[in-house]
Amino acid sequence: MWQSLTPFLQNIVLLLTLLAPLVVAGSCVLHGYRTASLTRALMWRYRWANILFVVLIAVSVGLGVGLLAQERGLRQGTALAAEKFNVVVGAPGSDVTLMMASVFLQPSAVPLIDGEVYARIADHPHATLTAPLAFGDSYRGAAVVGTTSDFVDYLSGGLVAGRHFQNSLEAVIGAAAPLQVGEEFDPDHGRTPAEKSEFEGAHTGAGLRVVGKMAPTGTPWDKAILVAVESVWELHGLANGHAPTSENQLGPPFDAAYFPGTPAAIVHTDQLFAAYALQAEFNQASETMAFFPGAVLSRLYRVLGDIRQVISVMAFVTQILVAVSVVVGLFVLTLLFRRQMALLYALGAPRRFITGVIWSYGASLLVAGALAGMALGQLATILLSRILSARTDILITAPLGWPEVHLVAGFVGTASVLALLPALAVGRVTSPADLRG
Amino acid sequence: MLLALAGLQNNVTGRVTWGATDITSVSKRKRSQFRARQIGLVFQDFHLFEELTAKENAALVSMFRPKAERQGLRKAAAAILGRLGLDDDQRAVGTFSGGERQRVAVARALVTDPPVILADEPTASLHRNAADTLARDLHDICRRGGKTLIVVSHDDSVLGRMDRVLTLRDGRVEA
Lengths: 437, 175
Known about the structure:
CATH architecture of chain B: 3-Layer(aba) Sandwich
Organism (chain A): Actibacterium mucosum KCTC 23349
Largest sheet of chain B: 3 strands, parallel
Number of strands of chain B: 7
Order of helices and strands of chain A: HHHEHHEEHEEEEHEEHEHEHHHHH
Keywords (chain A): Membrane, Transmembrane, Transmembrane helix
Oligomer: heterodimer
Largest sheet of chain A: 11 strands, mixed
Protein name (chain A): ABC3 transporter permease protein domain-containing protein
Distance between the termini of chain A: 58 Å
Helix content of chain A: 55-70%
Distance between the termini of chain B: 17 Å
CATH class of chain B: Alpha Beta
Number of domains of chain A: 2
InterPro entries (chain A): ABC-4/HrtB_transporter
Number of strands of chain A: 11
Transmembrane segments (chain A): 49-69, 310-337, 357-384, 405-427
CATH superfamily of chain B: P-loop containing nucleotide triphosphate hydrolases
Shape of chain B: globular
Structural class of chain A: alpha+beta
Largest interface: A-B, 24 and 28 residues
Strand order of the largest sheet of chain B: 3-4-5
């Protein structure tokens, strides 16, 4: 039955179930009564205390939903960034390090694969696209990456301005790179401040010119500057991957004898089985390591999954604590209402009506706080996503989703039942003596 | 004493009987129901919800009465407020003068048309003119409606209008 429902309907049913305590409690205490104007009066009379309560609830709810949404946004952003990287082949070592270097362009020292190995990868019958990556240089914080124009096309789906590099002095920039088409630049050797300072001026006079701009990809490659891999090798005084007779050639095929080495080869296959076959083959070879970035990310997500559980539990516990604090606060606040409630009792109001007035007051605060918390959580995720995107260059969007809605609904449902406690207490202890004030 | 008469005092020595009903021997719920139908209360310091309008305060009991009675109670509240010179005033009663507030409290006591009105020092918080007007209006409305009006007061202008005055000294009736 449950499985036959669409995910949307499942979420709706779960939402209604979580909110059911609110509806049931409200029906029990308010049935047949009209408490809205009295609740409004109490809300207005103690507005500053009420605002404080709503803010307290909103901050707690906002933190909970914000953290959950942010974690999911980070997960989706990294998955999107790795999507185009079918299989990565490199020299044996840490697949995480190589993934961080090749997919996320993080500065790392990784061993190289030589020309013969690269040729075997490029000539593999299942490989429809093979591209070397050569990194290590930078310009104003952006990685300068050597590769092929086919890979540029594959990665971005085409250029939005200009054209591809056609010689080793031309470059194509990512959508968010700190350069414009037509500008010239000299890359720095290295990525870190220490490297740059040690090799300051190593590439002065290189005079690379930007001739094209990629479409946005939502990945760290948006900030990158891409040049022909031959350009990187030449800048470092190495052979350019081609025999002297074809020294002006750009791109594949590379001559193994003149191939200086590359830290990673990105391989694309048309078929999934082919990707698995290729990965298995190069993973078994002693001089290479091949992996799916998606699989490495999944491994990291499993660790993150534990963190997510911790975050979820923390968010839940925090909200329970806030709910308890709210209930205790309501107990205190309702002391202020004793005269008004005593009056209602004197006028012949049933105890259930008095309970209903106090409960609807507490429930209004809870619902207002929860809604404000959702808005606050959304705002926090937008800000956090921007900060994280700026720091990691990974496009992170973290809209609130059903898990957050369910968390808030669970909080409201639970707290609304807890709010019955002060309401019942006031309903029971209301005394005409309070009329004397 | 008025709390005891209204069935709001729990530890009462002796009995409080209204007609055939001994309200000291019934449950709190029954007493509450009796009070809701039979007794209207006016307090010295008004006891109004200051954020509500005069009509909302006067028709307060409609919030917990059966749905069928609500419309009638709201109409009755408007009519009584009109008689007391407060019709169509949409302000929150927090902005009212003392005399206006006490008239709203009187309207609230009368809205269910109870046979008995218990008023505790109804003019004590009012200046002279307002006190005289309220004493007159309260007395006239109760007399015309055939209601029993029991007032605890130190105000001669109130006492002078009463059919019978009992003086309490040290908890005992003097005359």
